[in-house]
Design a protein that fits this description.
The chain is of the alpha/beta class. Helices cover about 30% and strands about 20% of the residues. It is built from seven helices and ten strands. It binds the ligand O=C(O)c1ccccc1N[C@@H]1O[C@H](COP(=O)(O)O)[C@@H](O)[C@H]1O.
């Protein structure tokens, strides 16, 4: 089984961006969602984007964002991918893909086998389906460090590119890849010392563990 692609999400500082690049992650995620402790203000995005050039692809994470917000972030961070993490519809995803000419990833919240089955609605509308843990009502729709029961993915027959998120960290990512065969793994809280505070050592450990899986 080839090593999974790796995305480190919620990067907000040049120092951690350098750690992500040094650890040879494939994707870095910038969160454009004001309620998140990992929110990147638009004014900070150009400098972060410039640092990534030629090293890592830039994924912009949005939660039910409007057109203006997404267009500004695409320009400021020179995004390569749009990740939708809210209640966007397949039609909205397809519209954004056409408008920006960028791949669109959609997070699908999972707590049951039915949630995995519902991911079929996204096949064809997006470029990658990201299975993530369903979070409690009233909390952030992701970035909570919560894992779901990975065995639920046994019902997913991989009819589309997909990835695994939710509570992944250096200690469990190898097991997650072994059990699910995920072609892409995505983490945020699992490489932090506190919400929104990334740890360069944990970033390196996560990438090494994912690659060794
Ligand atoms: O990171 C956030 O703050 C965030 C906010 C709103 C939606 C999604 C968010 N993060 C994404 O959630 C998954 C799982 O994160 P974790 O590893 O469990 O912390 C991942 O894709 C994050 O990028």
């Amino acid at each position: 089984m080839p090593a999974p692609a790796i995305k480190i999400c919620g990067v907000t500082t040049p120092a951690i961006l350098d750690a992500v690049i040094a650890a040879r992650a494939d994707h870095v995620g910038f969160v454009f969602f004001a309620k998140s402790p990992r929110h990147v203000p638009l004014r900070d995005a150009p400098a972060l984007a410039a640092r990534t050039e030629g090293h890592v692809s830039r994924v912009g994470l949005f939660v039910d964002a409007d057109d203006a917000m997404i267009a500004e972030a695409v320009a400021a961070a020179r995004l390569d991918v749009l990740q939708l993490h809210g209640e966007e519809s397949p039609e909205r995803a397809a519209q954004l893909r056409a408008r920006h000419g960028l791949p669109v990833w959609k997070a699908v919240p999972v707590a049951s086998a039915a949630d995995v089955a519902r991911a079929a609605a996204w096949v064809g509308a997006v470029d990658l389906i990201l299975f993530d843990a369903k979070t409690p009502k009233g909390t952030l729709p992701g970035g909570m460090g919560l894992a779901f029961d990975w065995s639920l993915l046994a019902g997913w027959k991989a009819r589309a590119p997909w990835g695994l998120a939710g509570g992944l960290n250096p200690a469990n990512v190898a097991e997650a890849v072994r059990l699910t065969g995920a072609p892409l793994v995505d983490t945020s809280s699992g490489v932090e010392s506190a919400p929104g505070v990334k740890d360069a050592g944990l970033v390196a450990a996560f990438c090494a563990a994912a690659r060794a899986a």
